[in-house]
């Protein structure tokens, strides 16, 4: 390779590579984002997270207002799947613009397993949310979630109250 070729290669990388990565076809980016719903949440394959999300992934809008890295997202997904083994997320809509894949989805699962100190409530947990996924080099590098996380607590409380009333009625 000649010096000029190396210069041109480096120049292209610095000036156009990011643009090329960002303009990955919308259908490809949507398919990558959809894998999270299909493989992680519906097939309960936590290992798929490593293939879908970049190693420097950042997730915004999660409980407590924290930003999650890829391993923390994997642990959070595992917590939900462990607590609600029948959980699924139905993607209601996925669309892409030049920068993001936008998602709208619906979560449903029955809280039948103990997680940490939280006993099973047998409540059906239902909530919906939206998100934006930003992609680079064929992986999700950043997401922003909009979820009413407090609705999960209300569902759990309803399940515990129902269990108390059911216990009292059948004594």
UniProtKB/TrEMBL annotation:
Gene3D superfamilies the UniProt entry points to: 3.10.450.50
InterPro entries tied to this protein: Cyclase_SnoaL-like (IPR009959), NTF2-like_dom_sf (IPR032710)
Domain of life: Archaea
GO biological process, any: polyketide metabolic process
Signal peptide boundaries: none
Protein's name according to its UniProt entry: SnoaL-like domain-containing protein
Species of the source: Haloferax marinum
């Amino acid at each position: 390779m000649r010096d000029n070729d190396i210069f041109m290669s480096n120049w292209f990388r610095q000036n156009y590579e990011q643009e090329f990565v960002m303009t990955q076809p919308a259908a490809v980016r949507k398919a990558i984002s959809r894998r999270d719903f299909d493989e992680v949440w519906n097939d309960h394959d936590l290992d798929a997270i490593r293939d879908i999300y970049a190693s420097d992934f950042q997730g915004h809008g999660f409980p407590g207002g924290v930003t999650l890295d890829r391993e923390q997202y994997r642990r959070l997904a595992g917590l939900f799947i462990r607590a609600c083994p029948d959980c699924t997320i139905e993607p209601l809509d996925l669309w892409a613009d030049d920068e993001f894949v936008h998602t709208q989805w619906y979560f449903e699962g029955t809280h039948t397993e103990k997680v940490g100190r939280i006993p099973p409530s047998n409540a059906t947990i239902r909530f919906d949310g939206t998100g934006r996924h930003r992609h680079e080099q064929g992986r999700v590098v950043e997401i922003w979630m909009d979820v009413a996380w407090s609705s999960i607590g209300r569902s759990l409380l309803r399940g515990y109250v129902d269990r108390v009333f059911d216990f009292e009625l059948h004594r």
